[in-house]
Amino acid sequence: MVALVQNEPISLHDFHKNVHRTPYDAFVGETYSPHLFKDIIYDFIQKFGHLPPTSFELSDIKKTSTYRTMFDEFLSFNHDDRFYEDSCITAAVIAEQGYPQLSSDKKLQIAKYTWHAVTIEDSANKILPHVKAFQEDFFRRRISENALLASFQQNLLNMYNWWDPIAANLITISALDFITGLLMEEDPAYQGMQLSDAALAWPDFLRRQTGSAVAYACMLFPKDSCSDTSTYIQVVEDMAYIVNILNDLLSYHKEALIGDCNNYVHFRARVNGKTVLETLKDVAEDILAANERIIRVLQSTSPESIVAWRNFVYGYSDFHFCSPRYRLKDFNLASE
User: Fold this and answer.
1) pTM of structure
2) Residue 194 DSSP code
3) What tens digit of pLDDT does each residue of 122-169 get?
4) From which residue to which does the signal peptide run (predicted)?
5) Which domain covers residue 322, as residue numbers?
6) Is residue 19 assigned to a domain?
7) Rounded to 5 degrees, what angle do the CA atoms 271, 264, 290 make?
């Protein structure tokens, strides 16, 4: 472990700008080694017990009823053909690959949730006043003046049709946290905020706000198949943690290739006084440890839920390996 260097706090903007001038970023830019990253990922998937798929193609998702129904329903929001198609594919693949055991109506509901989150995030700076008013509108029972946000309001209300009140509440709160996290990321004051070495909890707090991960954990347990939330509630936090940092681990390659350091891995490396390489290894180990805890708890509280969890986390992993966005096919891991 690298000893914590007590540097002067730096802004997130300067942290990005000076990426090649800090010891915390020795694994970035021209010093980034895809070979070393591949070693970390290869070791991780061996221990994780799930290899990347060899035949699944994202284009297959366009043949599903989830994709076709959602694509037709939200067509009025299509202002960019490429983005619209990609957002529908992303939403459908997470629902289809992550929740294969659920009925078609529930998978469609989950896909719609993802589609709204992706689309709102992409257009937030264009509709920022409406995004700022989203939660107040929600609690005052006002329909948002923005059609996209009004559609998201209805999507959240519909959660109570399929999920127990506790689970649906957690899904809704997760969505509201996502909106708050989005506002934080869009706020210039936060973009220029001083990042202190002592702010050890900040990277995980910000990640929980922006990831909407609790929602995806609770969606595994609709009320018609799991009416007792106490059977899985002890693992929701670990599930959400994996949803967030598995994405961060598998996203790192494509971010490093473009020199992007405005992410969880870099923030965590910064506040912990470690190199990014060390941090990536820590993240991989944290995922494995959290996954083991989930299995141990479910073995005693809800053994049948282990299959649902593995379906989700393996499907979620497959999404990253199959999507061209993440560039993980660069490593050809499925053939090793």
Assistant:
1) 0.88
2) E
3) 999 999 999 999 999 999 999 999 999 999 999 999 999 999 999 999
4) none
5) 34-39+54-331
6) no
7) 95
